[in-house]
Specification:
This protein has about 80 residues and is of the alpha+beta class. It has one domain: 2-Layer Sandwich (Mth169, Chain: A), CATH 3.30.1280.10.
């Protein structure tokens, strides 16, 4: 069994409108030191697999086919073996 921790964010250079909105809100609340906010998604998947390479390949395929939009988003993942 493996736990996949997946982080999805917009690619650098693309306007992150949610991040801009949160930055402005934080600045108006007195947090003037906040220079940039990047919004993203975090997912956890539990995989019933005994082979780490197979689990990693499956998660990569899921990210590229469904979980992220490879045109505008980057993803990274951590794979942790579970007892």
């Amino acid at each position: 069994m493996y736990l996949a921790k997946i982080y999805i964010t917009l690619k650098q250079g693309l306007l992150d409108s949610q991040g801009v909105t949160v930055k402005h809100a934080l600045n108006s609340m007195g947090y003037a030191g906040v220079e940039e906010v990047r919004f993203g998604k975090y997912l956890e998947l539990t995989l019933n697999s005994s082979d780490q390479a197979e689990a990693e390949n499956q998660v990569k395929e899921m990210c590229e086919r469904l979980l992220s939009n490879p045109v505008i988003e980057n993803y990274r993942m951590e794979l942790v073996e579970r007892p």
